[in-house]
Amino acid sequence: MASEPLSRVQSHDLEIGVTEAIQRHVARPVVLHKPISQRRLDFESRRPRWLRECLAEAIGVFMYVFPGVAATASFVTNATHPLGVSPFGGLFQVGCAYAMGIAFAIIACAPTSGGHFNPAITLCFAFWHGFPWKKVPYYILSQILGAFVAGLIMLGMYWPQISAMSAALIAEGKPLVGAATPASILCSFPNPEQTNLGFVFLTEFFVDFFIGLVIWACIDPANPFVGHTTVPFAIGLGYAVMIWGFADITIAANMARDLGTRMVAALFFGREAFTYMNYSPIAILVNIPATLCATAVYELLMRDSMGIISKGHAMHEDGEEGLLRHFHKSGMLDEEMMRSQALRGVEIGKRE
């Protein structure tokens, strides 16, 4: 019995585990999985696809919101450190938490659901790339649920620190909702001096536009500068860059992330989480038109559909015949023929 685990590993084999991820890149083989039973296959075939996709979206949002709000909680609850500076990080830490959380969410959940994790991205996929409109409400509700659960669990884990901070603010006669308050751990609020909501709107719009453009460029199969293994980290880094640059002047950057955690804030700190300075509509809704505008710019001005077709990622709607018609119409086929004839003439001249 004791020798069985050793006998199944041949000389120079790698034991099953994380090493499976490198089995295509090393000479040494990885021990095979145990045989897959018919019971397992039957179970997997009976799983409702819509449920798997919705759960993957909820878990994906949870995976980046949870470390993001936890990093924010660590920063905010320790902001009054005696040294005058929190030793537990700042906006850089928060940006890194969201960036790595997004990358891990894409790696873990995107193979199941497509990895939208943002209502605006779901709407853009439906508008531009044929994602079924009937799935849109389910995806959006799942994304909001993921953020809501992440906010609840984080609040429970940090409740002693948040309670102490809340008690100190109440004793000083200060509110619990607003910038640098317990509620701001969960969702964003404008700074007291940001009374011009038009300025706040523009900040949110351009931040969301930037993130949307980065996402659309990263998932473009014709883009030669992003490999499939680097997409999760490139998207996460795009999100982090905006946090580092603009979180200090109030951004939300994702409807699901903001609305889900804002509901948690309303449950524990009152409905002022939605009414404070009339800001919540900007945080919740601006992400959608901004991302639609960003993807429109990419689709209408920067997309290279011919490059996608040539790499085998898509085909012409009318098949090969439609592609040939396009070549004739654009003159590309004639140019190719002339080029091939010229090369043939050069080769004949060399032979003579």
What Rg is obtained from the alpha carbons, in whole angstroms? 26 Å
Q: Give the domain tally.
A: 2
So what's the CATH class of the largest domain?
A: Mainly Alpha
Q: Largest sheet at a glance?
A: none
Task: Outline the low-pLDDT stretches.
Answer: none
- Return the structural class: mainly alpha
Helix amount, in percent? 55-70%
Protein name: Aquaporin-9
Pfam families: MIP (PF00230)
Family: Belongs to the MIP/aquaporin (TC 1.A.8) family.
GO cellular component, one term: plasma membrane
Summary tags:
352 residues; mainly alpha; single chain; 2 domains; globular; Glycerol uptake facilitator protein
Explain how this protein is built:
This protein is an all-alpha fold and 352 residues long. Helix 3 (49-77) runs antiparallel to helix 4 (91-113). It has helices at 4-7, 38-46, 49-77, 91-113, 119-129, 136-157, 159-171, 197-218, 231-246, 255-269, 272-275, 280-285, 287-302, 305-310, 319-330, 332-351. It starts with a helix and ends with a helix. It folds into two domains: 4-35, no CATH class; 49-303, Glycerol uptake facilitator protein, CATH 1.20.1080.10.
Task: Offer a concise description of the structure.
By secondary structure, the chain is an all-alpha fold.
